[in-house]
Amino acid sequence: MMNFRRVLPAGRRRETLAQGGASAPAAPPAPAVAQSQLDAERLCRLIHETTKLDPHRKPGHQLAFLVRSIFQVESVAIFDADLHEVYQSGEWFDDPQNMLQNISTFETVSDDPETGLSRRVLHMGLLSIGALVIRGETRGQIATAIASVVAITFDRYHSFANESRTEIARQTEQLRTTVLDSLAHAYKTPLTVIRAASEGLSARGSLSLEQAELVAQIEEQTALLNRLTTSLLRTARLQASEMIPHAEKVEVASLVEDVVASLRDQLAKVSVRVEIARDDLSLRCDRGLLVALLTQYVDNAAKYGAPGTAATIHAEDGDSEVIFSVHSKGPVIPPADFERIFDRYYRSSASSNKAPGTGIGLSIAKRAAQAQGGHVWVTSDLQKGTTFYASLPITPQGGIRT
Q: I want to staple 366 with a disulfide (CB 3.0 to 4.6 A). Which of 100, 281, 342, 348 is the partner?
């Protein structure tokens, strides 16, 4: 009799053994698998620890310590490009700052088995925000993952820091506006009394020449202080969040005439030329705000214009806007100041020592334009002179009361 033996495939034999009785002992994980599991656990711990960091404190030193202690490497160095600071943990024989800066600038990523250094760029999107160098056994994808965690932590800190700085600046500006508003209102009453008293003395007609000159100086300086307090009040109003411009039809020619008439004394040393594209040029806007804007521009031309030159006031309409400009010949404004000159309290280095002022006027012009959906800009060079521009929409924009 013949004996038949059924031979099962290897896979089926293992299955049969597992089902039928004692199973074979599990093979120990390969060294590479064990290392991957350990790296993953360490990375999870690093992420967990970074979430507990105070977002309002610089995280660099803590990050360097965490990476070194969690991953058991010899040393760690991190570069924050925004703060231009280097944070280290462990021993470095040479200052790693130049190496880190080069990595960040040239985006050098490498793993060097001979030196044991892993170099990584800290990225947020496509932007390099710093660099990381690790000396130890951590390489490849795990080093890249560590760099990503460090970059995210840096970005979170900078976001919180910027938010805090913005809030502090807002509160400071609000306090400053409130104080200036209170002072301006407080000045108005004594200025009115001084002006009335000086006018009363002048009306008597019995003053000596010397007394009359003193009274004239009082009236002149009172008018100057009055204009300054008016500017402060106007600035406070423009900074108020509840301020809503009131739109009405404004005839440009008559408005420009009123502005020039109100500045007759200031314009004594320069001539004035008015150029309106057409007699019926008009727009719907807040008349008071437009008067404030042009008053600052024309007053600036009078203050800084060279004696004997002309200040030219120009207005023309485009497809959907009216462009105003005031041109004068005087100190040249450096291109670096073109944007900042409209900031409150900023005065261009070209004119800061040539005429008195507070740096408030042009910020008023900017806010008056922005409140109505417009914008301002300036050009200046030695040959053509200086021209301040303002563009306002012909019809009211959103947020303007009609």
A: 342
pLDDT tens readout for residues 297-343: 999 999 889 888 999 999 999 889 999 999 999 889 998 888 888 88
Question: 284 pairs with which residues across the strands?
Answer: 249
d(CA 371, CA 288): 12
The CATH number assigned to the domain holding 50 equals 3.30.450.40
For residue 256, pLDDT over 70 is answered with yes
Q: Are 313 and 294 within 8 A, CB to CB?
A: yes
Strand, coil or helix: what is 119?
strand
Same domain? For 193 and 208 the reply is yes
Q: Where would I find the H helices in 94-208?
A: 97-106, 140-204
Cα(291)–Cα(287) distance, integer angstroms? 6
Structure tokens at 178: 């409130």
Examine the domain organization and report whether 158 and 295 are in the same domain: no
Of the pLDDT bands very low, low, confident and very high (cuts 50, 70, 90), residue 11 is very low
Contact 72, 81 (CB under 8 A): no
Range of the domain at 350: 248-393
Q: The tokens 């109003």 sit on which residue? A: 237
Altogether, the residues listed in the chain come to a count of 402
> What is the rounded average pLDDT for all residues in the chain?
81
- Candidates 51, 46, 269; CA nearest to 142 is 46
pTM: 0.48
Measured at the CA of 141, the angle between CA 32 and CA 143, to 5 degrees, comes to 105
